């Protein structure tokens, strides 16, 4: 019963009708339905398709081989469910809503889209049930948590028998398949003999759904997938919060053997259930005693925090430790990795279960793990499972080099029986990565099946009409339709002394995005994507300081948000940014920025509030694509440009994956809000085609390697012309051996090649990016420097390069060039750092030779001053000149007056709020060069300096200073220095005044204002580490609960996790 072209046209018309209601188009302005089209004609095909498929499933279940031979394709079942859902959304016949929703839910469920099925079930629960339609109620119960129902009120004893078996199966794993199949067969025989057409359909649906639920249940599948007896899983599966049924992606991982220890590269779309699958992989490893240590590596602090929170809740009843070391590059007191016993039996690959130790999961960033590896390399050898989340990060600039070299190191150290799992939603060349990482390109688990459908729309402003949304115009296979009068400009009130009228929205993409978000957020979460932090800030600022200040007809997002949560955010923002800051004013309206300059704690609170539907609108950059799970229904794209370059197709699809959260929204919509894209698609075809390519997943770039970008040519400012006067290989060699000469040569390029848009500044930035790659190689090679002869070390470097992803992806010519670079770096190391002990020490710093030597020289010259430091603050004063000298932040040297940024840093270390920090600079009249002018410091710049320069770059340099000083100092002096420098490093990292605040911050309250609030009143020295902070909270829960009541809910959730029994 394959739908024909007219059926698909009817479905598009129905969908358009529903969208007009969804987008708030007045009913009088709806497009008139075609006279020759009866939309209810879709029902026989849709209902018949779902019914036929259900009948086939039941026939197969009870052994009716003749009927089971026919098989309705799954895509037709899903299409039928979409038709039924669309008709319900169109409100053309509300009396049919119950039947439409239950049939749509059943179609999605049987079509293996359980996420969409659960959305329909939640909508079904909003209706009154037909009390005497026993079988329909039973169908709903079978799909909706049957383990929670008693089924006492059901009139049909046959339906009750089926549901009783389901209930018992999900509660304790008993009453297996045969009893269920017998009950299904009994109902079917009765239905085919005595039932009405409606009851016959419902009987088949009940039988098919029940059989499918048992077939896909965790009780049925996990023992088989893990090669473990059911008794091993019984304690976990009997819990109310355990996984009950395995989604398609989770089953796919089971079929591939990942729950029994097989390694693999997993490529699956966002919202497919990968997070729960990760938990099951770890749980299986612990239950089978294959390991007692699992490492989870995630590229961003926020993602690490989210994973740690989720796993801590998942494993709290199992006795497994879930730990997240601090992000500071220093050993953590609470994580003494040298004490992790290595229980692995190298022959069998099984841990000695008689040795008493608690299984533990450690979640950390690549940078932190790389640091730990270079201090304590045994940690990887003690791990039986390593999970790489968002594992496509190999070509993301300098961090990509760090990531690739980390995995190269892990490959060398990991035991052959250990399991490696790399997970990504957007890795295109998974087989190539698997061939490198796992030495087996076939170990790939891949699926493109979505658990939520996704629509693509373009804003359009046709002449003489109100703005429209054009749907499906980027696809030749989908039926196109549009929704009229979605963008209706309104005149805003004038402010005092204004003479010119202003309108909202304007024709700018950011303005249209804000307008559409205000119309749509009543339906669900909205994210506005911008390519730059400044663009996101502009939308937030204009909304708070202009649009809502004037007054418009649309309600602010706060009207559809939780008022208590808005109040809590305003309180936190006032304490952080000041009452008059645009971010605080925006928070009061329910508008939140989410980008790289959003402080970590604020980001965590915003993400949690979005997940809990406490707030509805965020304006973000690509931070939204960084693995964080947010329930977004609408993604509004203002521009695909990130600076001068378009966002990668891969990253854009990761971003699109946030729209349409499975199980919450059955559908996500991505709207391009720049009307020029669609309206000028014929005049400016290149821009339209770029957007089409961006949407097409087949256009996604394969995962590459930043190491190979060493050989990318230098480009002009526009990226349109490459520099041909010198080969890329020559440039790379000069970076290694003669950096200063290369910089002088670059200064002559614009003169020698005029009118080609080459600027010295742009060329130097490109060269600096390449130099960072060389520095990472230097650090990597020094780490593996053993006490061998120089030529042997050079030979080893040539061998090491062959173990990188770059080498495995490279052409033969690139392999030769890459090998030559590694050899040149090795020879340079031997030339400038001939002492192998110093090489090893430099390797632990994560810095290149030049910076490591500069630090070593400075520390030697200033050893007495360093040794004489009497506190962390005193030490910072001594170190300030070195930090300014080595930092990449230009504003440290060209800000006026001189010393202004040192004042800022001291305020940061004192724990001052961002509002107070801005005031410090204002009082000094501080400014920095911006083009031909000077610019004052605003809130966004101050946050960037504190979190990036002080918190990341300075902290990295301090780790190297410590290595050098401890190498030359006495043991006693070294211990004193270590105490000061470790404290200073964390204070710079977090912007906190003392160890007690740091302990609360690392206990999960990762927000400066809140950490200081919790630390107030604690006895000096009583709280040293996060364990102490958590212990004190458990001892005095009432006191800390009162402190947290005024702050966003995220932090109270952390409190509940800590105090949970």
Automatic annotation (TrEMBL):
<dbReference type="Pfam" id="PF00270">
    <property type="entry name" value="DEAD"/>
</dbReference>
<dbReference type="GO" id="GO:0016787">
    <property type="term" value="F:hydrolase activity"/>
</dbReference>
<dbReference type="InterPro" id="IPR014001">
    <property type="entry name" value="Helicase_ATP-bd"/>
</dbReference>
<feature type="domain" description="Helicase C-terminal">
    <location>
        <begin position="546"/>
        <end position="708"/>
    </location>
</feature>
<dbReference type="InterPro" id="IPR050474">
    <property type="entry name" value="Hel308_SKI2-like"/>
</dbReference>
<keyword id="KW-0347">Helicase</keyword>
<feature type="domain" description="Helicase ATP-binding">
    <location>
        <begin position="255"/>
        <end position="445"/>
    </location>
</feature>
<keyword id="KW-0067">ATP-binding</keyword>
<protein>
    <submittedName>
        <fullName>DNA polymerase theta (Helicase domain only)</fullName>
    </submittedName>
</protein>
<dbReference type="InterPro" id="IPR027417">
    <property type="entry name" value="P-loop_NTPase"/>
</dbReference>
<keyword id="KW-0547">Nucleotide-binding</keyword>
<dbReference type="GO" id="GO:0004386">
    <property type="term" value="F:helicase activity"/>
</dbReference>
<dbReference type="InterPro" id="IPR001650">
    <property type="entry name" value="Helicase_C-like"/>
</dbReference>
<dbReference type="Pfam" id="PF00271">
    <property type="entry name" value="Helicase_C"/>
</dbReference>
<dbReference type="InterPro" id="IPR011545">
    <property type="entry name" value="DEAD/DEAH_box_helicase_dom"/>
</dbReference>
<dbReference type="GO" id="GO:0003676">
    <property type="term" value="F:nucleic acid binding"/>
</dbReference>
<keyword id="KW-0378">Hydrolase</keyword>
<dbReference type="GO" id="GO:0005524">
    <property type="term" value="F:ATP binding"/>
</dbReference>
């Amino acid at each position: 019963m394959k739908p024909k072209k007219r059926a698909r046209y009817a479905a598009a018309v129905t969908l358009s009708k529903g969208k007009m209601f969804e987008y708030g188009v007045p009913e009088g302005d709806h497009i008139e339905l075609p006279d020759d089209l009866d939309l209810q004609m879709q029902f026989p095909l849709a209902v018949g398709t779902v019914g036929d498929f259900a009948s086939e499933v039941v026939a197969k279940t009870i052994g009716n081989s003749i009927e089971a031979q026919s098989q309705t394709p799954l895509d037709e079942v899903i299409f039928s469910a979409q038709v039924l859902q669309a008709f319900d959304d169109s409100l053309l016949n509300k009396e049919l809503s119950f039947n439409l929703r239950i049939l749509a839910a059943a179609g999605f469920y049987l079509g293996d889209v359980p996420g969409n099925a659960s959305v329909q079930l939640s909508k079904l629960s909003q209706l009154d049930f037909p009390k005497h339609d026993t079988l329909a109620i039973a169908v709903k119960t079978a799909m909706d948590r049957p383990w929670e129902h008693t089924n006492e009120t059901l009139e049909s004893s046959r339906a009750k028998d089926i549901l009783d078996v389901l209930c018992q199966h999900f509660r304790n794993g008993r009453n297996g398949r045969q009893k269920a199949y017998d009950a299904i067969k009994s109902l079917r025989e009765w239905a085919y003999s005595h039932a009405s057409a409606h009851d016959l359909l419902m009987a088949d649906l009940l039988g098919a759904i029940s059989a499918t639920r048992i077939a896909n249940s965790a009780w049925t599948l996990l023992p088989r997938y893990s090669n473990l007896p059911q008794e091993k899983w019984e304690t976990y599966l009997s819990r109310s919060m355990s996984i009950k049924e395995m989604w398609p992606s989770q089953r796919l991982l089971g079929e591939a053997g990942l729950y029994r220890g097989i390694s693999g590269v997993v490529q699956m779309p966002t919202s497919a259930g990968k997070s729960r699958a990760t938990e099951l992989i770890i749980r299986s490893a612990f239950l089978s005693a294959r390991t007692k240590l699992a490492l989870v590596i995630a590229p961003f602090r926020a993602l690490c925090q989210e994973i740690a929170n989720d796993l801590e809740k998942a494993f709290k009843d199992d006795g497994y430790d879930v730990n997240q070391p601090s992000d500071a590059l220093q050993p953590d007191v609470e994580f003494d990795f040298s004490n992790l016993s290595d229980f692995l039996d190298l022959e069998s690959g099984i841990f000695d279960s008689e040795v008493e130790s608690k299984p533990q999961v450690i979640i950390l960033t690549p940078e932190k793990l790389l640091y730990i590896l270079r201090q304590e390399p045994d940690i990887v050898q003690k791990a039986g499972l390593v999970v790489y989340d968002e594992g496509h990060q190999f070509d993301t600039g300098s961090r990509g080099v760090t990531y690739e070299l980390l995995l190269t190191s892990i490959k060398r150290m990991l035991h052959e029986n250990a399991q490696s799992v790399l997970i990504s939603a957007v890795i295109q060349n998974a087989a190539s990565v698997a061939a490198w990482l796992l030495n087996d390109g076939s170990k790939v688990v891949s699926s493109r099946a979505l658990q939520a459908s996704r629509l693509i729309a373009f804003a359009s402003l046709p002449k003489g009409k109100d703005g429209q949304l054009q749907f499906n115009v980027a696809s030749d296979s989908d039926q196109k339709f549009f929704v009229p009068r979605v963008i209706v400009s309104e005149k805003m009130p004038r402010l005092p002394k204004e003479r010119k009228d202003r309108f909202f929205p304007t024709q700018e993409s950011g303005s249209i995005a804000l307008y559409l978000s205000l119309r749509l957020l009543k339906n669900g979460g909205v994210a506005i994507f911008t390519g730059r932090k400044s663009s996101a800030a502009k939308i937030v600022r204009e909304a708070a300081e202009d649009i809502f200040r004037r007054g418009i007809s649309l309600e602010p997002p706060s009207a559809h948000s939780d008022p208590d949560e808005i109040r809590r955010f305003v309180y936190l923002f006032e304490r952080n940014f000041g009452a008059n800051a645009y971010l605080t004013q925006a928070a009061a309206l329910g508008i939140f920025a989410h980008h790289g300059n959003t402080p970590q704690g604020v980001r965590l609170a915003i993400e949690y509030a979005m997940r809990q539907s406490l707030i509805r609108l965020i304006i973000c950059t690509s931070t939204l694509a960084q693995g964080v799970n947010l329930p977004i229904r609408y993604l509004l794209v203002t521009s695909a440009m990130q600076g001068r370059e378009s966002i990668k197709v891969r990253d854009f699809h990761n971003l699109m994956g946030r729209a349409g959260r499975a199980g919450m929204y059955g559908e996500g919509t991505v709207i391009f809000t720049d009307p020029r894209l669609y309206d000028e698609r014929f005049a400016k075809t290149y821009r339209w085609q770029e957007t089409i390519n961006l949407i097409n997943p087949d256009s996604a770039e394969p995962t590459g390697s930043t190491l190979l970008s060493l050989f990318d040519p230098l480009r002009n400012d526009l990226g349109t012309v490459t520099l041909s006067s010198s080969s890329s290989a020559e440039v790379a060699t000069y970076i290694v051996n003669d950096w200063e000469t290369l910089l002088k040569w670059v200064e002559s390029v614009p003169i020698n090649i005029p009118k080609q848009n080459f600027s010295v500044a742009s060329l130097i930035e490109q060269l600096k990016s390449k130099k960072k790659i060389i520095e990472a190689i230097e650090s990597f090679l020094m780490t593996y420097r053993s006490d061998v002869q120089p030529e042997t070390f050079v030979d080893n470097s040539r061998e090491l390069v062959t173990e990188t992803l770059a080498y495995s992806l490279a052409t033969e010519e690139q392999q030769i060039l890459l090998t030559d670079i590694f050899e040149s770096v090795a020879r340079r190391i031997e030339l400038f750092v001939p002492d192998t002990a110093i090489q090893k020490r430099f390797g632990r710093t994560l810095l290149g030779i030049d910076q490591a030597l500069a630090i070593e020289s400075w520390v030697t010259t200033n050893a007495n001053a360093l040794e004489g430091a009497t506190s962390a603050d005193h030490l910072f004063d001594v170190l300030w000149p070195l930090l300014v000298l080595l930092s990449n932040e230009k504003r440290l040297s060209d800000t006026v007056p001189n010393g202004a940024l040192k004042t800022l840093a001291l305020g940061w270390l004192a724990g001052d709020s961002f509002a107070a920090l801005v005031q410090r600079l204002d009082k000094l009249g501080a400014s920095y060069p911006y083009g031909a002018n000077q610019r004052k410091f605003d809130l966004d710049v101050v946050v960037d300096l504190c979190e990036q320069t002080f918190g990341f770059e300075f902290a990295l340099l301090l780790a190297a200073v410590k290595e050098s000083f401890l190498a030359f100092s006495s043991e006693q002096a070294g211990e004193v220095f270590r105490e000061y420098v470790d404290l200073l490093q964390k204070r710079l990292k977090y912007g906190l005044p003392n160890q007690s605040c740091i302990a609360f911050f690392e206990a999960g309250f990762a927000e400066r204002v809140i950490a200081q609030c919790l630390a107030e009143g604690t006895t000096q020295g009583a709280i040293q580490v996060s364990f102490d902070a958590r212990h004190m909270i458990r001892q005095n829960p009432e006191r800390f609960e009162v402190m947290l009541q005024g702050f966003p809910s995220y932090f109270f959730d952390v409190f509940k996790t800590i105090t949970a029994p």
